Amino acid sequence: MRKVAVLALLLPLLASCMKDEYVDYTVVDEKIISEYLAARPEINAERDASGLYYEILEMGEGAPIGEDNTQDDKVTFSFTSETIDGVSFYDNEKNHTSNLSTLPYSFQIGLSQINKEGEITLYSPSLLCRDAYGYIYGKENTVMIYHINVKKDQSEIDDAIISTYLAENQIEAVKDESGIYYEIIEEGDEEALPITSTSAVKVSYVGTFLDGGEEFDSGETLDQYGNYMAVTGFIEGWRTMLPMLKKGSKVVLYCPSQLAYGSNDQYDTTTGKITMEGNSILVFDMHVLDVH
């Protein structure tokens, strides 16, 4: 069974626990979880040294998670959560993609017990419901239950969707090793200044969703003062695509979600309405007008 470096994860939590003069939540939560599981013998949960209890529902046929301590695994998963007394806290089963180290400590420990495409339920002491930034994935000072379903990587999911779309629409696009697909419409001026990571560019573009074709944005890449925008300020898909182009180039870019805006929904800052759902695959019609 795989292990993670629990001590390193828990040091900040132990420090905060020592400041609490009134309640030792480590003891309180252990009692709550053990009594909960004792009353439900059908749950086959194991206890980790950290105090986390977990039940592996499906080991998964994908790659091991957290096996190599020298790299920070990226994991695509959906989850629901509830307090141990049955109050639902999060019930949106959309896919999330995150580096393992950015997740709550309970997730880091629990997911390291299974493989990708696996499924696990965590019974988490309240101190393990936080991530390294202090954000609590649940109700404060409350034992949480997390039901986690690990998927194929979102990049694999997006690639299958894009390749199917291109085949069905008979579009001959090139796949870059980064995961973007692109179709060159016009090559541009071969003698023009090359686009690099330090360039500033003026690009005319129209952005649409691959799913449904609805336009979500259009315009030119100019800041509020009319200056060209730096390549470094764009989404990763654009930063990958632009150095392949020249002034005058026209291209259609098919951008996987993780090279665009990722798993998080995007909101209108004025109305608060969702303008782009997480995991959206985007299509950009791009025309490079000028390069500085």
Helices and strands, with pairings:
Blueprint: H1 6-19, H2 25-38, E1 46-47, E2 53-58, E3 74-83, E4 88-90, E5 96-99, H3 105-111, E6 119-124, E7 144-150, H4 154-168, E8 174-175, E9 181-186, E10 200-209, E11 215-220, E12 229-230, H5 236-241, E13 250-255, E14 266-267, E15 274-276, E16 282-291
Antiparallel strand pairs: 1-2, 2-6, 3-4, 3-5, 3-7, 6-7, 8-9, 9-13, 10-11, 10-12, 10-16, 13-16, 14-15
The level 1 CATH classification of the largest domain is Alpha Beta
Secondary structure tally, helices: 5
Distance between the termini: 54 Å
Beta-strand residue fraction:
25-35%
Main beta sheet: strand number and arrangement?
Answer: 7 strands, antiparallel
Mean pLDDT over the full residue set: 94
Count the beta strands. 16
Domains (count): 2
Reported by name, the CATH topology of the largest domain is Chitinase A, domain 3
Task: Pick out its properties.
292 residues, alpha+beta, Chitinase A, domain 3, 7-stranded antiparallel β-sheet, 5 helices, 16 strands, elongated
